[in-house]
Amino acid sequence: MPIRERLLAAAGVIGPCVFIADWAILGTRAKNYSPLSDAISELARMHAPTRPAMTAGFLVFSAALPTYAVALRHSLPGHAWKFAAANGVATLGVAAFSLGTPTSGDIHGAFAGLAYASLAATPLAASVVLRRGGHEALARTSIATGLACAAALVASVVGPDHVHGLLQRVGLTMGDAWIIASAITMMRGSDTASRPAASQMDADPAG
């Protein structure tokens, strides 16, 4: 993989790591806030003392994911890169329409839902290409990650309020961990997972 592609892939490590570190540190230090029951977005609520730092974490992540998606597109044919890019755009929407204003609630929730869905869809879409390339173990891992991520994020919405924050963090961390792992693989110059499938995908203009 060319140096440029590796630098683009590095965004897939930087963005999620900054985001995770941000909500983890702020969540433990914020007053009247529980990481177990409160959503990450509460840290970026209007007038919250943690708003500037948490918003910065959202913005770093939202810029990093489309950048990483460019590298993913070149390394792994298929549609996974589209979901990764969409996740960055949706996260930007989450940051732009923060909680605490009369008009932001529903819009914020819509962007959060899109962010959840696109994050879980990224490894699921990647598994299709990995399986076509004969990488069954990687495909199964990606499927398991995507499904577990989706299950945790759905549970964070419809499940008990007292573990809402915990379930959200579990779901996001699983999805982000897949992104980090795939980015590291690309940075090491290993794109062999896509090569066996490349000839099959060349005929697919949408890939």
- What is the percent of helical residues? over 70%
Q: What's the SSE pattern?
A: HHHHHHH
Rg, nearest Å: 17 Å
Overall residue-averaged pLDDT value: 90
Largest sheet: none
Verbal overview:
The chain has 207 residues and is mainly alpha-helical. It has helices at 3-29, 51-75, 80-96, 104-132, 136-158, 164-187, 195-201. The longest helix has 29 residues, at 104-132.
SSE layout:
Elements: H1 3-29, H2 51-75, H3 80-96, H4 104-132, H5 136-158, H6 164-187, H7 195-201
Summary tags:
207 residues, mainly alpha, disordered C terminus
Write a compact overview of the structure shown.
With 207 residues, the chain is mainly α. It contains seven helices and no strands.
